[in-house]
C-alpha cells in the first residue's frame, strides 16, 4: 500500500471520538481480561508495577500504573534537569529563531507548539527534547525541575499517532494533536512541558490535586496510552548531557543536562 493510502487511513481514524471509544473500553471491567496479554505483547515488566497484575480494575488502570518505590531514583545533583518520563529521544537540539528543525524530517515553530502563547518569546533560542513513550513504557509524567506552575493550557486537537510513521508522514503532528501545556518557573529559568496526545490516547490527565509548586520527580500528569512529551527550555538556561542523542533511551529521574550559570 502507498504512503498516501496509509495517510488517508490515519486521517480517518484520528478523530477524537475514535480514541474516546477506545478509552471507554480500556476503562471498562471487561478490558481486565486483556491485561496479561497486553503485558506479554509489549514486554512490560509486570513485576515492576506497584500492585499485583490481578489487582488492576481495567486495562487503563494497569496502563497508568505507578511503579514500586525506588525503581526510578531521582538524580541527586540539584543543578541537573531530570527526565520527566521513560522514553526514547526522537528530537533533540537548539531552537533557532523560534524553529525546531528536522524532527523526523519536519520543522516546527515554537509558536504553533505553544498555541501562540505570549510566552513563546522566552524560547526563541532555547533548547528542546522530544520524548516518545511507547506502549511498553511507564506512562506517568513527572516534573523535570523544582519550581512553581506559572500557567497551564489545554489545547484541543487531533489524535494522530506519534510513532515513526506519524511523525514522518503526517503533517506536523506535534502541533496539531491535543496538548496539555504546563509552564514551570525554576530559579534558573522557565520550562514548558508539552504533553502531546496520540492515537488511542483517550485523555491526558493532571494528577489531583495538582500542587502549585513541584519538586523534581514529583508526579505531574499521565497518559492513557502511548504518546510524547516535548520539553522546551528558555534561552541561555540549559546544556544537555553530552552523550544524549537521537534514539537514546532515558528513564524518569535520569539526568538530562544541567542548568547554566547566570552571568
UniProtKB/TrEMBL annotation:
Coiled coil stretches, renumbered: none
Cofactor(s) annotated in UniProt: pyruvate
Signal peptide per UniProt: none
Main enzyme class: lyase
GO BP field: phosphatidylethanolamine biosynthetic process
Keywords: Decarboxylase, Lipid biosynthesis, Lipid metabolism, Lyase, Phospholipid biosynthesis, Phospholipid metabolism, Pyruvate, Zymogen
Enzyme Commission number(s): 4.1.1.65
Short name of one Pfam family: PS_Dcarbxylase
Entry's Gene Ontology molecular function annotations: phosphatidylserine decarboxylase activity
Keyword Plastid included in the entry's annotation: no
Annotated metabolic or biological route of this protein: Phospholipid metabolism; phosphatidylethanolamine biosynthesis; Lipid metabolism
NCBIfam families: PS_decarb
Entry protein name: phosphatidylserine decarboxylase
Amino acid at each position: 500500500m502507498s504512503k498516501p493510502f496509509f495517510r488517508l487511513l490515519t486521517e480517518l481514524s484520528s478523530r477524537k471520538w475514535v480514541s474516546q471509544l477506545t478509552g471507554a473500553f480500556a476503562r471498562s471491567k471487561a478490558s481486565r481480561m486483556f491485561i496479561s496479554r497486553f503485558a506479554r505483547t509489549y514486554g512490560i515488566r509486570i513485576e515492576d508495577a506497584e500492585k499485583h497484575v490481578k489487582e488492576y480494575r481495567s486495562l487503563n488502570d494497569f496502563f497508568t500504573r505507578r511503579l514500586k518505590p525506588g525503581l526510578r531514583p531521582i538524580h541527586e545533583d540539584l543543578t541537573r534537569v531530570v527526565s520527566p518520563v521513560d522514553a526514547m529521544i526522537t528530537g533533540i537540539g537548539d531552537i533557532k529563531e523560534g524553529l525546531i528543525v528536522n524532527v523526523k524530517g519536519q520543522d516546527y515553530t515554537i509558536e504553533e507548539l505553544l498555541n501562540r502563547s505570549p510566552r513563546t518569546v522566552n524560547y526563541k533560542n532555547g533548547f528542546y527534547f522530544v520524548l516518545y513513550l511507547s506502549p511498553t513504557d511507564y506512562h506517568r509524567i513527572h516534573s523535570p525541575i523544582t519550581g512553581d506552575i506559572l500557567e497551564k493550557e489545554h489545547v484541543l486537537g487531533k489524535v494522530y499517532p506519534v510513532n515513526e510513521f506519524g511523525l514522518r508522514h503526517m503533517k506536523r503532528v506535534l502541533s496539531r494533536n491535543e496538548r496539555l501545556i504546563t509552564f514551570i518557573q525554576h530559579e534558573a529559568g522557565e520550562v514548558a512541558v508539552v504533553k502531546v496526545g496520540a492515537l488511542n490516547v483517550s485523555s491526558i490527565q493532571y494528577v489531583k490535586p495538582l500542587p502549585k509548586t513541584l519538586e523534581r520527580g514529583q508526579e505531574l500528569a499521565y497518559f492513557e496510552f502511548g504518546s510524547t512529551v516535548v520539553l522546551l527550555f528558555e534561552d541561555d538556561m540549559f546544556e544537555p548531557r553530552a552523550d544524549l542523542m537521537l534514539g537514546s533511551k532515558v528513564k524518569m529521574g535520569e539526568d538530562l543536562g544541567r542548568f547554566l550559570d547566570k552571568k
